[in-house]
Amino acid sequence: GARMSSCNAAVLAAAVLATGALAVRLRLKALKTARLCANTETHKRWAQKMQAFIFDIDGVIHNAGKPIAGAAEALAALRANKKKVLFMTNNATKSPDDVVALFAKFGVVAHPEEVMTSAVAAADFLRGRGLQGKQVYVVGMKALVSSLENRSGVLAVGGPDDDHK
User: Fold this and answer.
1) Which residue out of 56, 97, 161, 162 is catalytically annotated?
2) What is the pTM of this model?
3) pLDDT one-digit tens code per residue, 88-113
């Protein structure tokens, strides 16, 4: 079958996340429960129905390079229960490999293919537009430039070299 591009996958994931969030809010309202609690049967039944969990990175897994308490344990528990775990961020300053290395310092297991950054989404978009070999002016950090060049094949101009402009 046809493979879904990372950009399309990200859009689909966001739509699923939004739809899922609405369904959860409606279920919670119907249950008159303000918040799910890991020790309740309601929470356990809800979690069993979920196949995948998408986490933002900044402020959810870590804050300014410091781990969020309980995040590593929660992710390990999801993986132990055979749940798919994905990470998304609009932060283009780190590559997926950088994110994985940072997570390892916190005891969080992650793999580069589970990390979607805005740089990765932008690179996949440019590749999908057939811009391989074309010059693209980039305003951003080294991770953005590297991601665009490596994933999409564009020739990045600008980037950190033009940060003084």
Assistant:
1) 56
2) 0.71
3) 999 998 899 999 999 999 999 999 99
